Amino acid sequence: MKKYCLAVLLGVVMACGGNGADMTRAASDIAMAAADKIMRDAWIAYNIGDYRKTLRLIRPLAGDGNSRAQVLLGRCYENGLGVAQDMAVAAQWYQLAAEQNDSEALVLLAYCYEVGAGTPRNPEAAAALMTRAAKAGYAEAQFNLALYYSQGLHQTAKDQKESFRWAKLAADQGYAQAERFVGACYEYGIGVGEDPAEAAIWYNKAAAQGLARDGNVFNRVRGYSMP
Fold first, then answer.
1. Which residue among 45, 168, 171, 220 is least packed, with the fewest CB closer than 10 Å?
2. Rounded CA gap, 86 and 72, in Å?
3. What are phi and psi of 153, to 5 degrees?
4. How many of the other CB atoms lie within 10 Å of CB of 94?
5. Cβ distance 183 to 195 under 8 Å?
6. What is the C-alpha to C-alpha distance for residues 135 and 103, in angstroms, rounded to an integer?
7. What distance in Å separates the CA atoms of residue 17 and residue 14, rounded to the nearest whole number?
8. DSSP string, 62-101
9. Which residues of 33-66 are buried (b: 16+ CB within 10 A; e: fewer)?
10. Is 159 in a helix, a strand, or coil?
């Protein structure tokens, strides 16, 4: 389908004139714009609970290799939305998107490996995937990696300074749980020197997003269970 659409679009552009490189680029831009519109429509359908429409829109894109469509299709299978719940199929779609370095897919696949949902449990693979997403700048992954280092999870060596570093990167992006975590680090001197003023700043940032001050953040394990 993707090749057919590109061929049609290329034909349209050729009819309008232009050199080969420009025509190919124009056809690709048109195809990307069309895919973006389909994904916007799919998310609208997903958010209002019209999962049949969501699936109808994203399946062709996912099959053509669109990583965002693959992630959304994986979520449908993970949660049994419009299809029978199947964590193995969900993990397969996350894997395909992760192979394209989609950060959300890397995190979702890491969760699967953490608990063995749809794939054998593999702490080492979970840590590697989470690290890839964190290094790409994905805030959720950065905070999860902070928890890994804080508690020595999933074969990650316990390192409070490294934990603080990753939490701060996520907090700097406005990730609320990381803001609260950083506040606690400054309050108790975990991975960084004690600084009540800084602690108050970060606690206030988290509170503005609805997260109350909580000194137990260092003992909390972020859970991920099958729906």
1. 220
2. 14
3. -85, 150
4. 31
5. no
6. 10
7. 5
8. HHTT-HHHHHHHHHHHHHTSSS---HHHHHHHHHHHHTTT
9. eebeebbeebeebbeeeebebbbebbeebbebeb
10. coil
**Which residues are within 8 A (CB) of 200 and not within 5 positions of it... i.e. 6 or more apart?**
183
Residue located via tokens 């994905």: 138
Total residue count of the chain as it appears in this document = 227
Neighbours of 149 (CB within 10 A): 21
Among 127, 129, 88, which residue's Cα sits nearest to residue 109? 129
3-state secondary structure of 86: coil
Q: pLDDT per residue over 82-106, tens digit each?
A: 999 999 999 999 999 999 999 999 9
pLDDT at 227: 42
Q: What is the pTM of this model?
A: 0.84
226 burial via Cβ count (<10 Å: 0-12, 13-18, 19+): middle
